[in-house]
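S1.2 Input.
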Amino acid sequence: MKQNQPNSSEEFQAFNEALNQAVQSSERIARQAENRLISASGAQSSDDKASQTADQLKQALSKAASLKAKMAMAGSNMGRSNGNLQDLRSLMQQSYANTSLSGGDDDTGQAGLSASYDRESFLGADKSQNNPSGIRLDSRKTFAQALPGRRFDQESSRKGWIFVDTWYIIGPWDLPKGPEFEQSFPPETMVDLDASYEGKRHPRTKEAMQLRWRFVQSGSLRIKPPDELSSTVYFAYTEVFCESAMDVVVAVASDDRAKLWINNLVVFQDVGLSGWQLDEGFRRVLLKPGYNSVLLRLENGPAVANFSVLMCPADAVLGQ
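S1.3 Output.
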């Protein structure tokens, strides 16, 4: 040890410089090791988070499919008489929550329905409570008093029923054979207002019609699609704006039958061919703040085709 000690100021200075370099090198190696450890831990944490997010997404998608199936059954008019009221708010609230991956524990829909939503128990509950709120629509009064619009605000409850008067409409396609609404069409996958499609062959020219979305504004409750033909399918799209979340009753009527989505959720689906009736079915729904998408599929048999969608804040119509 003694022979390695510095004997002069020059050697002492050189010794200090070497010592400082060794300390700095040691500190640098320690920092590099720490950074590698942090990086490795971060990568593991990132992998864990990615795995957790993937699991959450998988669960959310599975729940979304289940909720949509329940909504389709709850919204169906099968086995129900005119004027039936179905409360879809719980299912819609769950679906909205599930969209943000937050989910919800409540798995019930309308009061009295089983969580499994099998057809027998569903219709059994419906027969005993077809329209507990007693909503009625007098055609003459509604035609006279309903206002056109697509917006709900704090004053809406005082205005009563509004009929959705502005739409983008596309069609006609050929009405498929087989069960109603079984075959899907492009607007059910994505609404692209700039898109064009080949539709039904025109009865006169025998050539496929080139279909584009067309803007339609109606001064009447009944909306008639352009190029009205028999044995056809049309789609109508619009958006309804709400200043805040709204509890709303929707009345859908069609000639011959219609299927209605609100925010990509089926809220009404008719069965069979029938003429337009104002009280074919009521649906109590939950609209979100901001813009709510509304898509309607109209299937027409022989003769005329038309539809209407009326909305009213629930507190203005319940108990009438």
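S1.4 Remarks. The CA atoms of residues 1 and 95 lie 78 Å apart.
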